[in-house]
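Field reference: sequence -> structure
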Amino acid sequence: MAKVDIAKPKAGDSIVSMSPKLFEDYKARPGDKALITMHTVPYEGSVGLINLLTTTRIVRKGFDTTLLLYGPGVLMAASSRGYPNVGDEAFPGHLAFNKQLQVIMNEGGKILACRFALAALYGHREEDVMDGVTLCDPLDVLDCTIEHQRAGALILATWTL
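Structure field:
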C-alpha cells in the first residue's frame, strides 16, 4: 500500500480555506424580526447548542429576536442544573445551554418557554426556569409563529426527538 507522507496538523494549523465567503454579512434592517423555535432535547446532539449559537449571531446582527422553547426544548432553560450543586459545572461544557441562553438575554434576545411542556411533560415548576425567561401558554406556540410570519420575520424552526 502506498504511504502518504505529509506532516500531521498541529494546533494553529488551518485544514480548510476560510475564504472566499460567498454571501454578504447581512445585518438586520430597522424593524427586522427573527423567531427561532426549538423542540429538541438538550445534550442529545449538537442541534440545540448550534441553534443557540445561531440565535446569538442573529441577535448580534440586530434582529428583534425571540427564541421559543417548547416540548423538550424547555429543559434548556432549567435553572436547577449543576453537579454536585446548582450552578457547579461538572465538566467543561456542562452548563453550555444555560450560559448561552444568558448571553442571548443579556444581549437583548427574548426567550419564551411553554408552560405545558414544563409542567405536564417534565414536572418542573415555573420557579425552576432561569430568570428572564418568559413562560407562555401552549396555545402561544402557534400564535407566536403566526405573529412573526405576518411581520415578515426570519423564522428558523427546529423539531427533533
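Note: The chain is about 25% helix and 15% strand.
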